[in-house]
């Protein structure tokens, strides 16, 4: 019951034991095409270029930024937690001139703050997190794409923690590139990063296309020198090459991580069978029950609750309580894992998730009962049954 990774859905576990097939086997290429179509629905987009980057979520982030951002270009990163800082660091490593705007952890940006920053910086790319897992905040993104486009910027969003548990609309919100992971609300393991790219983002990446020497008819012929400065500074994360691999050309690049593809496909099938809106509502309901439960236990919720992600809540560790000792008893006696946080919040809050397969009533009620028991063990005055009762009220 932490902020992810979470318990994997049994259907995804079963998918993981599917026999491997080669990357050009018609079964495999069929599933690649099917996975592209499934993730178009997950991301709510018509973007043809919707596929998987092999690697954990940060692989998707690196691939998007290194492929979109040319060295020296300005990138604006609005930071409201640990993962905004990660975007900043990755953009810096891409050689960008990075401009950061920050709000305190536990808050989000207003659209006006973002627009002012875009107007001042005039970036090529605005890179933002939707749900910053470190603070649990969910940044409103409606209208941000339009602001970016009006000022000639592309909008990149990391929706790893939020997708499938909170509304995320690629086309309606004008998002040019978005990357995710499976290990949060999608109910899978980490290791695959679904990505989607708008035609404008694809045009930028296409403009930087370079074919590997070993795939050219004459590997020894010099590349056009003029193309080299713009060449994407990573081979593995060169999305022009990865797009060629996922296209009908099937141009050789990496060896597709078949088991992760099976997982990603099953996660999307599960989500779409349930319905994206229904899944978001499920996360809202169980998140609201967990929120009511921890509040009824007398715990103080961290941050702007109105902008909290549905799928995770951060609570302040009560004064004088050893947060790690509480986590350890929950884990070893109750078999329940909850998280703490990073940087300024390390050891100050517990983060309790209700996401993916764990966004269930029984998981919420047992976690609240366990937390109450452990808090009492540590001498915290809590009303017996208070957390569970408050959660049950939400379910009535
Ligand atoms: C919002 C967000 N972005 C990126 C990541 C990095 O994901 P990964 O550990 O899969 O690389 C995480 C992980 O928790 C995350 O929550």
UniProtKB/TrEMBL annotation:
GO terms for molecular function: transaminase activity. This is Pyridoxal-phosphate-dependent aminotransferase family protein. InterPro entries: Aminotrans_V_dom (IPR000192), PyrdxlP-dep_Trfase (IPR015424), PyrdxlP-dep_Trfase_major (IPR015421), PyrdxlP-dep_Trfase_small (IPR015422), SP_NH2Trfase/AEP_transaminase (IPR024169). Residues 30-192 form the Aminotransferase class V domain. Keywords: Aminotransferase, Pyridoxal phosphate, Transferase. Its cofactor is pyridoxal 5'-phosphate. Belongs to the class-V pyridoxal-phosphate-dependent aminotransferase family. The keyword Transferase applies. Signal peptide: none annotated.
């Amino acid at each position: 019951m932490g902020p992810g990774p979470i318990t994997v859905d049994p259907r995804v576990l079963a998918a993981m034991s599917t026999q491997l097939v080669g990357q050009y086997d018609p079964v495999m290429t069929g599933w690649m095409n099917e996975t592209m179509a499934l993730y178009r629905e997950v991301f709510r987009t018509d973007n043809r270029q919707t596929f998987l980057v092999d690697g954990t979520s940060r692989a998707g982030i690196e691939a998007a930024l290194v492929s979109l951002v040319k060295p020296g270009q300005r990138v604006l990163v609005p930071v409201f937690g640990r993962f905004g800082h990660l975007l900043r660091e990755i953009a810096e490593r891409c050689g960008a001139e990075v401009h950061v705007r920050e709000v305190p952890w536990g808050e989000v940006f207003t659209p006006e703050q973002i627009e002012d920053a875009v107007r001042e910086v005039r970036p090529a790319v605005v890179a933002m997190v939707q749900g910053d897992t470190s603070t649990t905040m969910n940044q409103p993104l409606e209208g941000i794409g339009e602001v970016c486009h009006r000022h000639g910027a592309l909008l990149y969003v990391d929706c790893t923690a939020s997708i499938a548990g909170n509304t995320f609309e690629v086309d309606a919100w004008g998002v040019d590139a978005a990357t995710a992971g499976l290990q949060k609300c999608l109910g899978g393991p980490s290791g695959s990063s679904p990505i989607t790219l708008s035609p404008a983002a694809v045009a930028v990446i296409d403009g930087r296309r370079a074919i590997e020497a070993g795939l050219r008819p004459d590997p020894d012929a010099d590349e056009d020198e003029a193309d080299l400065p713009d060449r994407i500074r990573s081979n593995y994360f060169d999305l022009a090459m990865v797009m060629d691999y996922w296209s009908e050309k099937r141009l050789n690049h990496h060896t597709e991580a078949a088991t992760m593809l099976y997982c990603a496909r099953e996660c999307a099938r599960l989500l779409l069978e349930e319905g994206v809106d229904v899944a978001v509502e499920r996360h809202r309901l169980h998140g609201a029950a967990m929120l009511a439960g921890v509040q009824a236990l007398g715990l103080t919720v961290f941050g702007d609750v109105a902008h909290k992600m549905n799928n995770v809540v951060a609570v302040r560790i009560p004064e004088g309580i050893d947060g790690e000792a509480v986590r350890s008893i929950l884990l070893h006696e109750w078999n329940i894992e909850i998280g703490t946080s990073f940087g300024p919040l390390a050891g100050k809050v517990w983060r309790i998730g209700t996401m993916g397969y764990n966004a269930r009533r029984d998981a919420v009620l047992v976690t609240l009962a366990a937390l109450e028991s452990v808090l009492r063990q540590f001498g915290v005055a809590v009303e017996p049954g208070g957390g569970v009762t408050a959660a049950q009220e939400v379910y009535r």
